[in-house]
């Protein structure tokens, strides 16, 4: 908990989970009620599979209407934000959940020949207030095909933590099972992709916001710096990459580079990196990741340390580089800031 007159507005979100309309448990109403009343989330999305489970959503319009109606019924701007969504379930190119920031939107099937690769999916969504999120992208149950460069307008962020583990890097806490070489999110950033970070549960047992209760690899949450709990503010924050990921614990993480918020583009040169962490569990360390490597790791000074601050002058940042902060608790709970990206075209 952070109590301060200048504290930013932080919304906790779980943007990925399932009900008994695909391969989970409970009804859509159960899902949203748990997210709001038990997990205490500000934002939630139910993302049942387009074509997985019986019957299939893409063949059963009545089920898609049921999901749409539940999202509309629980949506309470200013208090609790619901997002209409589904999981585009490609076993060739990887899974992505699709979120609409409006009351309605089409169910786009991964088995339709017109929308069976990521580029076609983005084409079908273009012009709508919608976003897509690649998840468990580094490994099992299916890795993301990063040969399709994420659409900068429709996929500005990626899910780095869920019940499947972390897709950030091999040295992250609880790395994903059966990782594919070169397929971690840090590898994708090295390709020049500009992706902010979120976590989300991918819960199948009716625990949105608390998926880690049933998973040895943790869960996932998105922490969103938004002006208010509305669909419009959440969409704007995600598009700006003003967000970060945790694998379940509600770790407060603030970071700036060159006095710009996480997710920003900064000019080349030398700039101060500042970070502050408040954690519910004892901290082990705070890492600074620069490009493919962990640049430095600040270890906790005492055994039960739950707050840490870091300030480091990063020298000679070059165009194409990226930097982010990773905080790790002793129990493996972790938070990842969205990266900062170095670009010669950035305003000084």
Plain-language structure description:
- This protein is α+β, with helices and mostly antiparallel strands and 348 residues long.
- It has 2 domains: 10-248, Metal-dependent hydrolases (TIM Barrel); 260-342, Sandwich (Immunoglobulin-like), CATH 2.60.40.
- The protein is built from 5 helices and 20 strands.
- It has helices at 28-38, 61-74, 118-125, 185-190, 231-239; strands at 10-14, 43-46, 81-90, 94-100, 130-134, 157-162, 165-166, 196-199, 221-225, 243-246, 252-257, 260-261, 265-266, 269-278, 283-290, 293-299, 307-317, 322-329, 334-337, 340-342.
- The strands form 3 sheets. Strands 1, 2, 3, 4, 5, 9, 10, 13, 15, 16, 18, 19 and 20 form a 13-stranded mixed sheet that branches. A 4-stranded antiparallel sheet has the order 12-11-14-17, with no helix packed on it. A 3-stranded mixed sheet has the order 7-6-8, with no helix packed on it.
- Helix 1 runs parallel beside helix 2.
- It is globular.
- The mean pLDDT is 97.
Order of helices and strands: EHEHEEHEEEHEEHEEEEEEEEEEE
- What percentage of amino acids are in beta strands? 25-35%
Number of H/I helices:
5
Structural class computed from helices and strand pairing: alpha+beta
State the fourth-level CATH superfamily of the largest domain.
Answer: Metal-dependent hydrolases
- Count of discrete structural domains: 2
Q: Look up the CATH topology of the largest domain.
A: TIM Barrel
Biggest sheet descriptor: 13 strands, mixed
- Could you tell me the radius of gyration in angstroms? 19 Å
Q: Please estimate the helix content.
A: 10-25%
Mean of residue pLDDT values: 97
